[in-house]
## 1
Amino acid sequence: MSSDVIIATHDLNLWYNSTHALQSVSMQVKKNNVTALIGPSGCGKSTLLRCFNRLNDLIDHVRVTGEITLDSENIHRPGTDVVSLRKRVGMVFQKPNPFPKSIYENVAYGPRVHGVRDTKELDRIVEESLRHAALWDEVKDRLSDSALSLSGGQQQRLCIARTLAVGPEVILMDEPCSALDPIATAKIENLIDLLKKEYTVIIVTHNMQQAARVSDYTGFMYLGKLIECGKTSQIFEHPNEELTENYITGRFG
Amino acid sequence: MDRAGTQMGDPGRDSGRNTAAALRERGIKTLFFCTAATAVIVVAFILLFLLADALPIFTLVGLPDFLLGQTWAPSAAEPLYGIFPLIVGTLLVTFGAMVFAVPLSIGTAVYIAELASPRVKSILKPAIELLAGIPSVVFGFFGLIVLTDFIRVVFDLPTGETWLAASVLLGIMALPTIISVSEDAITAIPREYREGSLAIGATRWQTISRVIVPAALSGIAAAIILGIGRAVGETMAVMMVAGNAAIIPDPIWNILSPVRTLTGTLGIEMGEVAVGSDHYSALFGVAVVLLVITLIINLSAVAILRHIHEGSSARPGRKPLLPAQLKEPVSRSLKYGLIGVVIIFLFAALPVHLAVGILLIGVAGYFGRDRISRFHIEKASFGLIIISALTVLIILVIILADIVINGLPALSWEFLTQPPTDLGRGGGIYPAIIGTLYLVAGAIAIALPLGVGAAIYLVEYTREGRITKLIRTGVDLLNGTPSIVFGLFGFAFIVIYLNVGISMLAGQVTLALMVMPTIIRTTEESLKSIPASLREGSLALGATKWQTISRVVLPPAVPGIVTGSILSIGRAAGETAPIMFTAVVFSQRFLPDSVFDPVMALPYHLFILATNVPGASASKYGTALVLLILVVGLYSAAIWVRTHFQNKIRG
Ligand SMILES: Nc1ncnc2c1ncn2[C@@H]1O[C@H](COP(=O)(O)OP(=O)(O)OP(=O)(O)O)[C@@H](O)[C@H]1O
Ligand SMILES: [Mg+2]
């Protein structure tokens, strides 16, 4: 396995009760790149994404087989500390979900739960994260306002800042723009481009242009299977599979 | 179908019928309006009658001296009517009850909402509803026999009837309210918050303690306020275990001192006072004060809950309950205040070395928290939470076991079918069983049509506006009125003013007023859960409003209405305070001939046996068990109806 692979799955299967939602998925995610996951609704994109930080553990009756590695460590190995796994693999959800606290407290929440008490240090992390998420200038004068008073796009960037504040290595994004207007979407897309310098981003999107714009690699999923995965330019211009081509060109069904 | 045919075929008759139908529709609407207005009228009447009867004492003594006077001695040669010790007693007892109940309740609520497996949940939730169903006189009986004795032995006192006993008992009684409302609040927190926090790498405990509970805080606050309201308004249980000396404990935190509450005073003295005397008026003054306190408490809880309800979509620009600048200092002072209070109580209730020990552990834990890994903190917190849920369960088991084990031997055919002999020591409780059934049947026959009508009016016939607001407030006020106040009102209005006398009818009406809010609430809920599309579908076919309501909206709402009615029946069957002065006698060999005769009733019978008849141990426990079976049976039926039909609707 080459050293620039950060996450890899091998023969990964997942069942919800009897629904076989992921079928023998094997893929590799390259460090400091943006990888997009595309595919029709219900094909298992979110499920796969939530495997990477084991958020599926929260759902009853989920069964997983196969292997997922983070930096060559199996994340299902007994004794794995799920909490520190989630610290390393952050997540931004489809619907912005800021906590009902102030803007400041939202961002400071992560560092606090990981043991940072020093106020100066917290202030620094909050400012840096908000700057990183391109939100600082818009909120710097109202940090103690409720996060719920922000617009949807600002809330989503706040959620990104909240994720950045714990210093993850990988950021998972599940349709982060689907609740946003085009302007807010453009801001987030620019942000993703900046983020890949320091982080690895895996993004689920329904928007083909978005995948083409922001990602370096793209995986196409269909009915629980990863049909193919490769460089974005290759997937969009010369897909190996007919299924992929049909989906990308909108000839589907 | 064929009616539509005739209408189309015969336009002349059709228009005649339309005016008739329109008239009928208007009549129906007016009728429902009248039922809805009852709630407001009753509240107005209660206020009016209490105030009218209290006025003489306010003018005689003067309001400041009445409220702040240090001595309550209404039967002295020179009577004194200062209710300050009673107010203090009420506050202290309630406060102690909350110190006991709040941690247990929140722990249990968090356990049910966040930690329990579905199986455990399916045991715990009905158990807590069961606890809510136990009549207060049965709690009082248990407290008198078991709890006070326990306290007497543990603290080596001459009697265990103390502030401590009253607070523990009231705390137990407030548990179900606080637990279920807090649990609802916690469960209502969107899953996204949970996932958001866990995805950052917070532990489950950090997520619960820093995101979920703070987000549910206003709901939990409302739960506590409702619990306080319940404790302040409770009469029978408190009166049976508090010792009832009208003194202020000395020192003020001496929880082993007897105390007397406002409600207890009414319960004890109302039965013996001469109508129209100064003392009589003073008791109504006490009732007014009690009413004002509970109204403030309940209305603030209702306001908080409504605020949450309306703000649940978390619209931006929604006004927070507390301005942001105030939040920090308020929460901080609350925190330190609470810690101080807990320390005082620790030292008051426990031997000194034990209290110091606990304090040291607490301090060590606080300063050592950075050294302890957060996984150990999580383990310890979950341990405490599980312990609190277990404690609640154990309390329930102890109460039930005591009454069932001691009560079963007393049950016999004779006990159920014979009238009492020898002041209830011998014979049976047949007239009390029948009397309770009569009272409850009458109460529900009055309350059901009024309550359902009011709910239909509120949900189906009006837009939200000034009138609905007024009616809703009326219902909220009624709901928060202590049962003893209903008792006083029933006595002053029905027994004396309408000159009906102590009679079954007076008891039935009083109970009906008391349970009406429950019926209105549950009916409203079930009507609101019927989707608007059903109504529109029916109206679009040309059905009139009343046709739509009676054929489309009401049928699926029936299970909800039935549940509410059964809960009300259970509540009415177990209540003592409202019938104590309006309807009951202690012992009579025969059944009443008409609604104008007084009756025997199970809860009152148990109360008198427990407090005034020495050596009737078997019949006491027997009566308690019969009452418990009756009420708990009704509650179980209500729970069954609810879950059965819920499952059916969900498919
Ligand atoms: N909690 C769950 N319980 C049972 N089945 C589930 C659960 N979550 C998802 N599924 C099923 O697993 C399959 C994959 O779902 P998933 O949410 O991963 O799809 P998706 O590709 O993210 O779809 P979308 O683009 O609509 O978000 C679907 O068939 C879905 O019905
Ligand atoms: Mg999805």
## 2
Amino acid sequence: MSEFKICLIGFGAVGQGVAKAINMKKQSIQEKYGKKLKIVAVSDSSSSAITEEGLNEELLLKTKSKFGKLNKYPEYGSDICGEDVLDSVDYDCLIEVTPTNIENGEPAKSLTLKAFKSKKDVVTSNKGHLALFYKEMIKEANLNNVQFKFEASVGGAMPIINFADETLPSSKIKSIVGILNGTTNYILSRMTSEGSSYLNTLEESQQLGIAETDPTQDVEGIDAACKTVILANSLLKIDATYEDVEVVGISKITSESIDLAKKEGYLIKLIAEVSLDSLKVSPRLVKKNSPYAVEGTLNMATLKTDLADEVTVVGKGAGSLETASAILTDLINVIRTK
Amino acid sequence: MRMNLVLELLDIPGQLVSVLEPIGGLGANLVTVIHQRDLKNEKGMIPVQITLEGEQENLNLVIEKLNEMGITILELDGVVRKERLSTILIGHVIDTDIKDTMDKINELKGVSVVDLEVKLAEELESSAMIVVEADFGKKSFVFDKIQEIANKKDLLVVNEV
Ligand SMILES: NC(=O)c1ccc[n+]([C@@H]2O[C@H](COP(=O)([O-])OP(=O)(O)OC[C@H]3O[C@@H](n4cnc5c(N)ncnc54)[C@H](OP(=O)(O)O)[C@@H]3O)[C@@H](O)[C@H]2O)c1
């Protein structure tokens, strides 16, 4: 029985979800694919736990929740962090789940390129480096003959990139129109059902932990724009970066406008549009009973294709275990090729 | 019985044949075809006028078939087909001269405002729901133009998907 060694960088909501998911699924993965999954390194922003022997997922989660850091992990905790983690242990695949940075894509970009150079496959949920340097990242992965997978970066658990590539390879995708941000969909859904103002609803979402303390990335459409770029490049082969997306957020949407829309049988949604003619994120009117009428934090996307006509996918766009599910799927797809 | 149709087709060889082929089997005969190449739009589509002859039920089948094939029928027996399009403007809708906004939309060829509802808000930023009727197939043209008009007045536009 061969082993498959994982290095996990970033141990926040998604990183911890990955540890949980691996803990839940490693037995069945071993039975099905003949590989024993082993997490050999985990790091957060300032510390890590590293051992060739393999770390215990439950102990990792306990250590992080108790101390907020990983250096107190029994025996194998340390202050090693950043790229040094990649040099301190032998691994097969990097799971990179650090925060999205759309200024310069770091630390994801450097970590990923370093892994590529060492001929390691990389799975990520990060959007920053992809939205800014998609072409370069893919080129480097190809040059080094490694796999680079990022299903989780768009729509969390909602299948879309692998779905289009592997389930619909017969059809050419002409456009994608969808709701790619759960936080704004939640805010707009609540404004619709409660008749509440934007600011009150935003505050409520922050209290519930659905919107972040600084909600800019979500409400101004930046997060959805990053995903738009990733879909444009990966599924429509449009050579675009973040700059090319026309972005309007939801912060100016009033409860009055939602009321007016309702009267005519419409809802207001933050819609991302990906096609050769347009890369755009903006609030739009959608029909009440259309596939776009998903509620709460759900994400959806309608793919318009040449053979299959329209195909719509729906799923949870965020969440610790939900996002980890997409990462684990990518990981399994990597394992299958080994 | 005769029926005149104006279809919107891609101006590439073979496009017309692929549309006419299934029609042949439906018991309608093609009388004339006129390509209106000078009216090519930005998507490379041109209006193609065709005249068919056949029994009413066969002609109905043709319409059904064209709809099924996703072909846009711009005109049927000289009547331009219309579609309703909705949009919402948010901002200083009144202060930026709502009448002028409506006039500018009504000036667009084949477009007329059929419904307008304004809601004033306490925060001064009001919202207006505008419903227009436009010639079939003009959706993106109409929305682009409304966006242009709104940009000049610093209004947020929420167009139909
Ligand atoms: N949350 C979701 O549902 C979701 C869904 C899809 C995609 N994503 C993407 O997944 C990624 C992770 O999201 P998240 O929600 O897990 O974020 P998070 O909870 O903020 O966690 C980020 C983790 O990265 C660590 N980190 C920060 N800077 C680092 C550095 N320079 N080197 C190594 N580690 C560093 C943090 O360390 P500390 O623990 O020390 O702060 C933390 O453990 C983001 O790119 C996000 O866009 C998230």
## 3
Amino acid sequence: MELLVSQIINGLTNTAVLFLAASGLVIIFGLLDVVNMAHGEFIMLGAYSACVSINQFHFPFIIAVLTAAVFTGIIGAITEKFIIRRLYGRVAETLLATFALSYIFQQTIRSIFGPEDQLMALPINAALNMGNIVIPIYNLLLIVVSILILAGTMLMLTKTKFGMQIRANVQNRTMVQCLGVDSQKIDNITFTYGSMLAGIAGALIAPIKSVTPDMGLSYIVDSFLVVVLGGLNSIFGSFLGSFVISESSTVMAGYMSEITAKLLIFIIIIIIIRFKPQGLFFAKDKR
Amino acid sequence: MFLELKNLTAEFNGFKAVDKINMVIEKGETRVIIGPNGAGKTTVIDMLTGKTKPADGEILLEGNNLAGKTPYEISDKYKIGRKFQGPNVFDNMTVYENLEVALSGHNKLLQTFFFRRTSTIKKRIYNILEKINLVTQKEMLPCFLSHGQRQWLEMGMILAQDPDIITLDEPAAGMTDDETYKTGEMIKEIMHDKTVIVVEHDMDFIKQIAKTVTVLNQGKILAEGTYDEISHNPEVIKVYLKTDDEGPV
Amino acid sequence: MSKLKNITVDKYIALAIFIMLLIIPFVSSLYSVQIFGKFITYIILALGLDILWGEAGLMNLGFAIFFGIGSYIFGISMAIQKGLPAFMSFGGITELPWFFAPLQNPASAIILSVAVPIIIALLLGYFIFKSQIKGVFYNIITLAFVALFELFIVNQQTYTGGASGINGIATGVMTLRLFGSKITIIDWYYIAFISLIFIYLFCLWLHKIRFGQIIHAIRDNEPRVQFLSYDPAVFKTVTFAISAAVAGYAGMLYVPIASFVSIDSSGVMFSTMVIIWLAVGGRGNFTGAMVGALLVNFLQNTLSGIFGGMWQIILGICLLLIVMLMPKGLIGSLVEWQYMRRVHGSEKKETKITNREAEV
Ligand SMILES: Nc1ncnc2c1ncn2[C@@H]1O[C@H](COP(=O)(O)OP(=O)(O)O)[C@@H](O)[C@H]1O
Ligand SMILES: [Mg+2]
């Protein structure tokens, strides 16, 4: 029983991590129709940026997170302007180009920092003790931040004028342009926002996960599973997707090896989409 | 009864594009469906050919319900062929190859490995090329054809496919008067032994080919009858024929 | 005469590659023979992906998985020829697990190295394509699949040698006999070479027959094909299986030539490389796949010594530039250029370049 409870709480932490990792991908995917194969590398860049901020410059953690967001945001803006913008609507080329980009980012980081794990101290060491169950405060922080990002993004998209413009831009580009909105600029900002989320995710997970040049891969695969399960243009769906995947893999991992759990989940997801090709939650369509 | 639509309904996000329509089509009949833009004509064809799943109702073909079956099954097992609104052909293949791909009787997996261009097959395709007036264009890519010729190519693909029921979604759209007339003759001549369902706008064209016309408006059947009955029905004139001047495409 | 003139430039390049590969053992060291032998297996692998990606438009981000399965099956078979290999006994097992028993016979291992990829591809393909999973979602699943395969191999140390791979293959390979005599590395080279020629011809055949036509039609306009009595899912699944068989066979050939199997030649990174080869060379004419595989690997072999880690960054930038500026790849662009010259030369007709890659 105690194992189960602590596994569920672990699962919540993992939900937070997974959702953080997936959110940027979902935004770029859902709003721009672009599959960013380099998304995992944006997370990786965010993590490295945070490590450098803290280990080299001894910034406080919050500044390190913001720096990571700005850093990946700038790279995202540049990427959109010079690469993605030329490839909208061309799925194969977008995939290949961002793929090349992921390769470049990875190799660049590897040649600067080497292949080894970067260490980063936990910014908050305190923990909650409840009987035999120990919950690190940092894990709670992750959960809170991911909920804030979920709520903030949803509010931004539905309640602000800018969010309206973004959504209108998705639905009817020509119309939006006729209304005098610069839709290229909106694309750029959307991509930048998605990249910033990736950077924040990277910085936040750096203290608890290993930081290596190829760390992006595992996040992008998991994020994609989230998208498959949660539907592609629903940020709330991806939150639920993260929850289902993390909870089940964490709970299952208590009883079997992590890899077996992952394999099992992968198989289950494939079977689910066999019978429910629209994704489990809220997917509108699946190209 | 050959083909019967019973309470057929299509829904898109709560909007009923086709609302409980009932229709009976006899074997060998040529039926024209008309109606203003957005009336739901294409959606009816979509449901008939498996592209759209009906929200409700039945499509009975000799007693078998086709509602919700896949396009593959409907074209393969129930032999319903389709011409899309706006020509939909394979742009990277020559006219000849387009017809060859559509050719019936060689569609099973293994057959596609052992298919040979025998003289019978060549003759069959040549025949079709003659009927659709594209003999000299047979080695061309569709992008070199005129719009009308592309429509004909797709009609040719249906002939090659050789279905029992042919659905034609606006086969004369975007054609010159001359081409439209030729298309009408084509339909009359080569499809005389088939059941044909045609969606069209052009009144002269309808007069040329149809015995029975069904008028659709806002997802419902407004009237059904011969061309003369329909063209004198005041309600039809009100919703449809009057607006024809604006030239729905 | 006019027939000869109609042969496209890619065929000549393919011929040149074959002639070059034919004479390499006569003019170079045994070491180079081994290197180019590996390249030949890579070229076959690239052809396998071109069947899937070029012909059917189904890019696969985890294609090396089938190469990996083929090479692990034959590699384990070779490693167990002389009793239990070290990585298994370190793992604490004392006798061969039952599921490896069929691998004791090299002939059955060879068959399995092709059959298992086919079966996996059929199962996976059936699920993916029957579920109408298309486009990006299909790509994602292929990526997830290879990532999990990699995790699985690395974790099952006892059965797969884990991260360090399978050693002791060479001694097993030594025991093999063909017509009663030992098979040298030169022999393996030519076995691979002849296989390559047959597979290339097979690809050209596949491209030409009705099956090929149908998968092109599906690639370019799948919605239309459905209404013509074809089940696209069946055709895609079979294409998937054919390409997996080719990849598994290439993986099997890789084992005696490289004498080593590890995740480096079957995991995510290697899958990435296969994609890069085809992106560089171009898809859909088979020569592009061969040129891409040969060129990138040759450059990697010569340049990685000079540039070290920088090489990979250079490769990434080259890939990016090719994707942006020459989306059809080197050979694809060449073929197109030749085509345009012919069309303009003979008819002076406006040519619309149709996009051959409707869907990935
Ligand atoms: N896939 C779809 N999603 C949402 N609405 C659709 C879809 N297809 C058709 N509609 C709507 O259904 C109505 C009927 O469309 P359609 O059958 O194409 O009309 P017609 O062919 O008679 O011009 C239209 O209002 C159209 O907007
Ligand atoms: Mg219509």
## 4
Amino acid sequence: MYEIRIHSRGGQGGVTAAKLLALAAFRDHKYATAFPFYGAERRGAPVVSFVRIDESPIRVYSQIKKPDLIVVLDNSIMDVVDVLHGLRPGGKVLLNGTLPHDMKGFQTLSVDLTTIALRLNLVVAGSPILNTPVIGALAKMGIVSMDSAKSAISEMFSDDRNVKAAEAAFQELVL
Amino acid sequence: MLTIATGNKAVAAAVKQVSPEVIAAYPITPQTEIVEQIAEYVTNGELKSQYIPVESEHSAMAACIGASITGARTFTATSSHGLLYMHEMVNWAAGGRLPIVMANVNRALGPGWNIWAEHTDSMQERDTGWLQVYVSTVQEAYDTTLMAFRIAEHNDVLLPVMVNLDGFSLSHINQSLETVDLGDFIPPLRLPHAIDVKNPRGYGPLTGPEDYFKFRWDIERSMRDSVKVIESIENEFFRRFGRSYGFTDDYQCEDADVVVVSMGTLGKEAEVSIDLLRKEGIKAGSMRIRWLRPFPKLDLKGRDVVVIDRDYSFGYGGILAEAVRSTCRAEPYSVIAGLGGQEVTYDDIAGFIRGRRPGEESWFGVTPDV
Amino acid sequence: MTEIPKEEYLFKCTSACAGCSSSLVLRYVLKAAGPDTVLVMPACCTSVIQGIYPNTAMNVPVYNVAFAAAAACASGMSAAFRAAKKSTNVIVYAGDGGTVDIGIQALSGAFERRTDFLYICYDNEAYGNTGMQRSGATPTGARTTTTPGGKPDTKKDIDRIVEAHDPPYMATACSAYPHDLFKKVTKALSIRGPKFIHVLAPCPPGWRYPTEQTVEMGKLAVKTGMWVLFEREYGKVTINGPSRAAMIKPLPVEEYLGPQGRFKGISREAVDALVSLARRNAKRLSLEEEGVC
Ligand SMILES: Cc1ncc(C[n+]2csc(CCOP(=O)(O)OP(=O)(O)O)c2C)c(N)n1
Ligand code: SF4
Ligand SMILES: [Mg+2]
């Protein structure tokens, strides 16, 4: 089982990113679950979402304690939340844009999702959309196939700039 | 069609296909998504139901009752305080023999305000004459909602059915969902006692001591008859769509020395604990109770039993543990865990089973060593 | 201008959304009420704003109670305080849903029984806590998550319902006019019996406008005449300054509706319905003020 924890702020699309990723994994003929942890918080507060991907049905509902991968959609969260908490030895981190944070030796990849979204004018209510480009980056990392990533995105969003954003992130992420 | 959906969306999808004539509902976390999805279906024309956005849950159930007695198919959904606020009408629906289907998204009760999963809300409604079923996956939520209409509307039942799903852990998780082509699985509803101006009758009038108990007995008789109806509808569902669930969902119980009994998502998580324990050489099994009313016959003879209650009856004990104790003459180890969304992992459940103390009760997080 | 006390009873950094005007309303209510006050609060956004146990964002006791129960609970509390010869302010702080929908029975009962308390309804015109579903106070044409095509029905006129109970004091207010609100709360608390203040509280995520326009949105509601500021003391109506000006020369209603995402794509008929309702209300209030009706 591959376990992913996504950190975002309420309204940034972390919950949708988790769902997209699960859908893409599902389109890869794997089993997947995606769920947010809901605090009684409001917009702008840090939100955590979880994704599990496996070859067999997933019966675990509890929160992910030891993720294999941590995705951070908003690096400012690292000032208030210990995003590396519980990361397995050998686990990876994907950041949105680089930041001089100490990643404690974990393999850290980064791609500027915000710039990609702004470049394509993927903006809703003043905020850049990060949940579709991040799926492209995750496809580049091999978490899901790019074909499934694209089909998941077009299943959920009719605007094809979302697929373009995923493609851009796929290209721009350096492994 | 194969897709992924949350537990809430799965319930809404089933309701859309069944297309009740009247839906009356009131929002409450974590059920809200069901109401919102149904409102959207109605607005965009995918669902032809009359949707009544009532001003409270008491009115939601009352509106369903008013619609149902005309012979209309009805649906509502609620949770926690919404269910409690409805309580009077919940009794009324069963006493009126109305086949209303309700989804209840299990959530803790205040004070303090807590929006997370617990079963005490629906457990407090267990004596109202409703059939109650607890589900554990998105697919099961969908399938069970479909079956609930058939069961409620069966002539030998004519009682309302409550489909319970855990708040957030199931209502908000995305899992795979295969929707079915219903065909004629749900025929038109024929309510034998529907209001008919050509045949004027009084409904629920003053009923004296010489008659009242007969109506009560009639509810119980139908409750008992519902066992066969549930079996036959499950069988039919299996024949048509290839899935069935049973009164309990048993996992590795055949040769088990110890069985953990639970409900809802904890029952699925428990299966993972069983795999762990089997690797250690402990012959454990998991029994997830699906139907709480009518309460199933459980075969737990000669084994140790651990019951996990995500509910409590103060001054008495875990409600499920009490049911197991009285119906199976077992001396279970009763664990109270998961109240108000308390995290309970498969490791924790494995720990309950390893450290079981038959006949005792422990509160996870309170009692030392649990 | 009235002196507003510097003391704060609502701490900063609550979990309210950015630009939340209802927390501003609460801040001024508490400043006017002072420390000898208990808030009775049904489920609403403010239940979240108060923080999670063991924290609290308020420096007065807050009694949380079930959604339908606030006014009845306050009745009991007020009776007990008065029996104990205590003059503690009992203030219900409830949303529009908790007031005009599920809580209306308790509200009506408490007013009929002349409970000595102040009932404040902050009106963000929907169920904010649960993510913006329609309420009885949602205006015609507004999109909410349960009225994705715009609400077909009319906003329930809670002021006229409360008026029918003939309370010694009732008023409307708006978060964009905090001094006016402060004065009204102060006045209400100086009067014995049931008092009601209905405060319009614009809500950026619910009404879908940028957070920084929250004060402007409240002002526009008043300047377009969509929200009328008035008081009714012992039956005598006074229309307050900003609304008086708006009645003579209202701004075009589009200036208020336009920036709000919830009114996007609203039909001409719905706009007309909103405007004619507002005009009718204004006319009725002016006639009442003149003592004509
Ligand atoms: C009996 C009951 N039904 C439903 C709820 C869920 N609920 C909590 S707050 C709320 C909406 C509150 O709306 P409003 O009173 O307008 O206050 P706001 O959240 O907008 O501040 C709802 C529906 C509840 N807590 N109890
Ligand atoms: S939803 Fe609206 S009223 Fe509620 S906290 Fe946010 S801004 Fe305030
Ligand atoms: Mg409101």
